[in-house]
Amino acid sequence: MEGVVYLPPPRKVSSVTVEEALLLRRSIRAFTGDPVRLEDLAMILWAADGVTDARGEFRSAPSAGATFPLEIYAVIGEKCVVTAGGEHLAAGVYKYHPHLHALVPRRYGDFRRELEAASLRQSWVGRAPVSVVICAVFERTTSVYGERGRVRYVPMEVGHAGQNIYLMATALGYGTVAVGAFHDEAVAEVLGLPREEKPLYVMPVGVPRRAARLSFEDLERVISAARR
Ligand SMILES: Cc1cc2nc3c(=O)[nH]c(=O)nc-3n(C[C@H](O)[C@H](O)[C@H](O)COP(=O)(O)O)c2cc1C
User: pTM for this structure?
Assistant: First the structure.
């Protein structure tokens, strides 16, 4: 496949525990101008929807009846993702391929402004170096579970993937915010989505201008005060 970016394989990269990532997870809407490292983006995409079993059947997030309705995209700006060798990935819209653990280019160019406009002009979407967009093919789940798949299972699964992105981003020193307010058709157009894929979350990712700082001791004080 032409232009495919094979990502560095998933591996243990962070010394942040799950409880620390939960403690420090916050929705972040202000980013420095720093790029995202390709190896970190690879881990964030793997957390969202990566393969996690020896036969390649299962993923990082649970899925109703293993129907796996989600499709993950990355909208990457100009000079916004840097490789270990110091090169920049071409700006564009890429689709994450979970089995190859690769980014497949869909269109080249910096589409962050268009994505921002489609997201009701939320400036953090335009300013973040990368936005991960979670889409779903509802039919994969509704063909098994009918209406329950549409109103419950698929939205639940997007939540699982979204939280995985939040936690992995936090563990690697990045910030993100789950953006649900956007014009569906406009986001679909920016991404060049096939008709069956519907966008559900836009998650801008970048280095936070101010990271959350809270310790478990702080939290204990908050809980003690609430009990008084
Ligand atoms: C379904 C959903 C939709 C959201 N949509 C937006 C959005 O469009 N724009 C935004 O800035 N934040 C959005 N948020 C983030 C919430 O504002 C945020 O999670 C909330 O204020 C709690 O803050 P926290 O995430 O830091 O704990 C959304 C969150 C959820 C769960």
Answer: 0.98
